[in-house]
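Bug report (template v2)

What were you trying to do?
Predict the complex of my protein with magnesium ion.

What happened?
Run completed; filing so the output is reviewed.

Input:
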Amino acid sequence: MLTWLDANLVSILNGLAIGSLLFILAVGLSLVFGMMDVLNLAHGALFLAGAYLGHLFVGQQAGWASFAGALGVAAVIGALAGGGLSVMTEPLAHRSHLDQALLTLGVALVVAELLSIAFGNDVQSVAAPPGLDGSTVVLGSTYPVYRLVLIGIGALLAVAVHVVIERTRLGLLVRAAVADREMVSALGVDERRVKAAVFGIGSALAMVAGVLGGPIYGARPGLDSTVLILALVVVVIGGLGSVRGALIGALVIGQVESLGRVLLADLASFVLFGALALVLVLRPQGLFGARAQART
Amino acid sequence: MSLRVRELVAGYRRGTVLHGVDLDVGPGQAVALLGRNGAGKSTLVMTVMGLLRARSGSVRVDGHELAGARPHRMARAGCAVVPQGRRLWAPLTVGEHLELAARQGRRRGGSWTVERIVEALPRLGERRRQAAGRLSGGEQQMLAIARALLTNPRLVLLDEPSEGLAPAVAEQVAEVVTSMLADGVAVLLVEQDLYLAFSVADQVAVMQRGRIVHRASTPEFRRDPGTAHRLLGVS
Ligand SMILES: Nc1ncnc2c1ncn2[C@@H]1O[C@H](COP(=O)(O)OP(=O)(O)OP(=O)(O)O)[C@@H](O)[C@H]1O
Ligand SMILES: [Mg+2]
């Protein structure tokens, strides 16, 4: 057992780092879909925009100021973009999921195309802040410091989101809206505002995740759809509208993507969707589906 | 508060359900809305509350035209709904339901507070930490009514509050509705249980295929069992 752990420690840590990033990305996607029935396919494009933003600010020689600046600007732009998407999908609120998803897909394609025009097709790297760019020894294996920090940030954000959702007034509103948003509006709450707020926070987190992921994945065309698919799988596995589900789903998919690929190297490309299919067969509503039933 | 509905047309993608509904609920009045299954009673309730889009017609609250207004505006105008099937937020606790509703009620001001609700419905106080989805049917109905009352409404739309409840529990629901009326709140009560409806309402309106086909005072309606039988298929 110990030798197994030793041999796979790096993969497990990598899985945790991927899981951290996926949680930050997926929690917004899950809440917006669980609450407002809007599947935001532009979520991956926001992540990529965040990654390029990190590249612009930080580039090759990173400083703490530029990295923090990138995070701050990503949060602001992300929140504004989320508010914009919320307004854009409003006229389609009484149409099918597909109509709204197609609109956000259109936005995603436009954004991705603009980014590739602006930054080209090469991989743009983003350096980790000074002091975090080296390696350290964890239980006998060398491991990049930045990834450990990312695991810590993911854990902190998970706690923060949990506290907001479970303990604050906004969180109560969000949980009620996930369960039945019409009944929230019938109390006198303008649901468009709640939607814009959650959309904004979710999109800000997606762009922040892009900046944070920069030092690991860099920024390149196609990254948007890769992370979008991973985030969608997390949401489906975790269950719509559930923060806990997004966390567990992200941790599972992180390990599937890292450890799973190492242990089942021959099946690497099937592991992700195998895990998805398994959950869908056993628990179609996801592990922690927060919605009692589908709305008509 | 008064509600005045005229020529209201609404429905679902599959087709029109309300074909021009006219209905009045005066200040402090209780009107029972009767009708067979599928007549369109719930559709009317949801359309008045703005949860379903009116295609045409007029919904006036105290003279203000609100047809097509979104639900939060109806709520702010003083309407509240206790929908069919209750539609509680199943994973949320009783206390959270009360808190969320009271937060909206405080803005508007009025006499209903969480303390008063818990005094009137002590069972809810005992179950404060329990998830709404785990309550009994009667407790769920009380919570749905409490949620509506805490917004301090002047008009409550109640859709089949006794559905699925034991007679003794339905009796309690009737008592709560009566105390609401004593408070001066107007009520539109959709009900299949005629005795409950008669015990609460001053006026009866009967709906058939998306139209109001009969109106009478409750005593008048009770003296005329032939009409009740013809319109509702009961004696
Ligand atoms: N969500 C919906 N989508 C499509 N059609 C619906 C929907 N809800 C109700 N209907 C249809 O509209 C018509 C009226 O239904 P409604 O629920 O208003 O009747 P009701 O008078 O409330 O009946 P009940 O006494 O059974 O509650 C019915 O034919 C019903 O099938
Ligand atoms: Mg009904």
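What did the reviewer find?
Chain B touches chain A through 29 residues (CB under 8 Å). Residues B 41-42, 84, 159-160 surround magnesium ion (ligand 2) (CB under 6 Å).
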